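Continuing the batch. This is chain 6 of the set; chains 1 through 5 are on the previous pages. Same settings as before, nothing changed between runs. Recording input and output for traceability.
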Amino acid sequence: MTFGGKDVIETYIDRLPGREQTKIRDTIEKIHIYGLEAFQEKMIITRPLQGKLWEIKISDTRILYMIRDSRSVYFLNICRKTKGYAEKREIRLALKRAREEGFI
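Output for chain 6:
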């Protein structure tokens, strides 16, 4: 959820074609079931972006997230894979949300 309470992740996913929705929801379900082990066992594809901010790669979709403690993964933003300015804008937005929530 964002600071204002609007669930941008769910809204974004709901707008995708069914097959894409399924891939993303399956990945999120793995995180719910396995917790941080899903990241350690490479069940999902991730990469670091900036500081504590990471991304999950699912097809052309990216979920930007932070791990705050040993039990919590916080999804901060979701977007299409891009290069250049748009990617930087999405990272800035995720970091802004992290600051608003007190994660950083």
